[in-house]
Amino acid sequence: MRSSSTFESGGVTMTGNDAVGILFIGHGSIAAYAAKQIRQTPRMTVHSALCRPGRDSAARAVFGENVETGTRFGDLSRQATVAVDCAGHDALRAHGPAILGAGVDLLTVSNGALSDPDLLDTLRDAAIRGGAKLKFLSGAIGAIDAIAAAAVGGLHSVRYTGRKPPMGWVGSPAEERLDLQSLTEPTVHFKGSAREAAKRYPKNANVAATIALAGLGFDKTEARLIADPTITTNQHQIEASGAFGTLSFTIEGHALPDNPRSSALTAMSVVKALNDYAEPIIT
Fold this sequence. Notes:
By secondary structure, the chain is α/β, with parallel strands linked by helices. The chain contains 9 helices and 15 strands. It has a 6-stranded parallel beta sheet, with helices on both faces. Strands 10-11-9-12-13 form a 5-stranded mixed beta sheet. A hairpin with a 2-residue loop joins strand 1 and strand 2 (12-15).
């Protein structure tokens, strides 16, 4: 819902529905990229941020000294137009219900968390109660609009294949199956449903979750994860068939310069979604 407060952005004072006040959950590299871009948009301002205890100074270093910080949504005095979660599954679980229940729309890139049916129900109930919307962003992948449209007419199959260099899987269950440092050829280390991928690889399988949410759901969407020593970028491929025909789509994504574990396209998708709140015409 739109706030009637007065905001400062880019040296311009805005009042009423012209102003888009943003609440960020998290202050990592994705949030920092988005905040930098938003500073160039006069009709938007970051006025509050949720962070872990003791991290207020770090959050203000990203968003500005005038940003109100807190560890719980209920601690904040300012009403946001829209909130955006860039902090991961646990943060969405911790803050999402309160934000949606208060009538504030919430954008998230923590799509893998929605593989938990109980959390999905909790967030849906909160959104209905508050009259708000939860929107999962496309993140590191594209063609989501095509998948969602195809689902209307009937999808027969959807498969996601995620490829990363071996070191991109460090810290994941891939280490239990593969000697990542000695691989000489592409090797599949996971094959199963998008739900299982999202649960087992919470830091690596948000893309599989995004595709599942747009199309056939978590249990009917196939996922393959591959450690590939022949590539240097993260690669995401969607293959789908249905009443619409067939689709094959691949992205080779770069990471953010200051964080090799964060997708640049994910950060860009946050900025695009926030821009939609400030623009009268959107694509």
